[in-house]
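Weekly structure sync - notes
Attendees: PM, LS, DV (DV joined late)
Agenda: review two folding runs queued last week.

Item 1: First target. Sequence and C-alpha cells pasted below for the record.
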Amino acid sequence: MTKRLTAAVAATGAAASLLVVLPASSASAKPIVCERGHRSVQYTGTSKGWVVTHKDGLHIPKGGQGWVTEKVEKERALMASVTVTAGSKVKVGVLAKLEAEVGIELKGQGEWTTRKSREVKIKVTKPGRYVFYSGVKKASGVYRSRVCNNRGDGFRRWSSWGHAKSWDFERKGAVRCKDSYSRKSLEGKVKRTYC
C-alpha cells in the first residue's frame, strides 16, 4: 500500500513538473494557415464571353448546296496576358486562378489566337447569306494578391493589383443569316454582329 501511494505521488509530481515547464506562449500560438512566402491571388470580379476572331460573308445561290470551303480573314487577335496596375509584379498562378474562377480551361500566358487567315469547311443545305467564322470564349478578371508572413499564421496586406485575360480554344463554322440561334452561343454572336 505504501509503495502504491509513493508511486502515485511521484507520478503526480512528474505531471506537475511537465505542466510547469511548458512554455507560456504555446497556449496562445496561432495555427499555421499558409506556407511562408506563398502568394495568394484573389479575384474581385470576372467575366467571360464570345469573341469572333475571323469572319467572312458569302452568298450561296439556289443549287449551290454541298461542301463549301471559305477563307476567313482575321478580325482581331487575342493574347493571354497578366498585367500589373499597382504594387509588385506577380504572374505565377494568376491565370490558373482565373481558370478556376470561370470554370473553363484557358490558354497559358503569351499564347495568341491565330493571327492569319483560316479555312472553314461546311456542308451547305440551304441557299442564302452565310457568315463563316472562327472564334473563342474569352475570360478576364481583376485580381489582387498578398503574401503569407514569415510565421505562416496569416497574410500580409494586399500588395499587388492587376488585370488578367485569356481564352479557351478556337472553333469555326458558319451561320445562315435567316436561321435562329441562341443568344448565348457563338453562332448567335456572329449573327447579331455580322448578318
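Item 2: Second target, run right after the first with the same settings.
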Amino acid sequence: MITIFYGDDKNTLDYELYNLIRFHNNTPIQHLYFKDNYDEILDSVCQMNLFTNDNIFIIHDAAFLLSTKPKESTLSQKLCSLDEKKIYFFILTKKNSFNMYTKKVNIKKIAKFSTTNKRTLINTILKNNHIDFADEITRQYFENNMTNNPFLIESELNKLLLTSNDGLITKTAVTQLINNSIESNVFKLTNYLLLNDKAALITLYDNLIILKYQPIELIQVIATQLFNLKLLKIALDKHYSNTKIETELNINKFVQFSNYDLLKKTSLEKINQTIITLSLLDYNIKRGLVNPYQGLKLMLAK
C-alpha cells in the first residue's frame, strides 16, 4: 500500500504524520529524509524488504514525485512499484501534478490544520491519560499559547501530566510551562533574530542548548513561527480585521496582538530571506554537510 500525502501547510502535514505514527504504534517505522540521495532511499527500502514486509517507510520531502527528470522519475517508478510495502510519502506543496508513476497509488490532499484539530488532539491526549484541565479558562490559555504542531503539543502536555494534582492541570502549572517552554523561548529567539539583536540572540541560543534543546527542533519551531509571522504581516498590510485573520489564517487574536509591535519594525523581505536561509540550513544539516550546533549558531550570529 503506497500513499502520498501533500499540502501547503507544514503543521497540517505534521498532524497527518502524527496520527499515522500513533495508528501504527506497534509497527517498526523507518523515516527517510534524503532529498537527493536516491540510491540510499532505494537501498533502505529494498534491503528491509529482504527481511520483512511489516515495516513502514515514511519518506519526507518527497519532491522527486513532482519531477519528470530521468533520475527522479526512475526513483518514483521503482518506489511506486513496491505495492506490497507500506510506503507513505509526505510532500509540502500546493501542486498536484505528480509524475506518471504515481497514477496507481493513493494520493491524499490534507485539509488545513484547524482550531478544531488542535482541540481534538488535546482532548485525545488528556483522555488517554485520564486527566483534564482544572477549568475552561485554563484550557483556553493553553490552546492559545500552543503552536499547531502536534508533536510539540504532545510534548508540552506530557510535561503538564507530571505536575497535575488529583488528575487536574492548574492555571499555575500551565503558566509556568508557557514561561519556560520551547515555544516561549523560541518566540523570543525569533524576535531577536528579526530585530538583529545579536547579543541577546546568541545568549538565549546558548542557554537553550545547555537545556538540551536540539538544533533541528529549534529550526522547526523557528520556521513555523516565521511562516505564521509572514502570513500575519501580509494580512496586516492588507488591513484584514482581527476576526478575518483568525478565521481565514487560523491565527488567534492572542498571537496577533503579541506580534503587532514586532511586525511594525520588520519587513516582509526580512522574514522571507530568513525563511530561505533557515530552509537551506535545515537541508544541509539533514544531508550531513553541516554540524547542526555550529551551523545554527553561525546562521544566528551573521
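Discussion on item 2: The longest helix spans residues 215-237.
Action: LS to circulate a short write-up before next sync.
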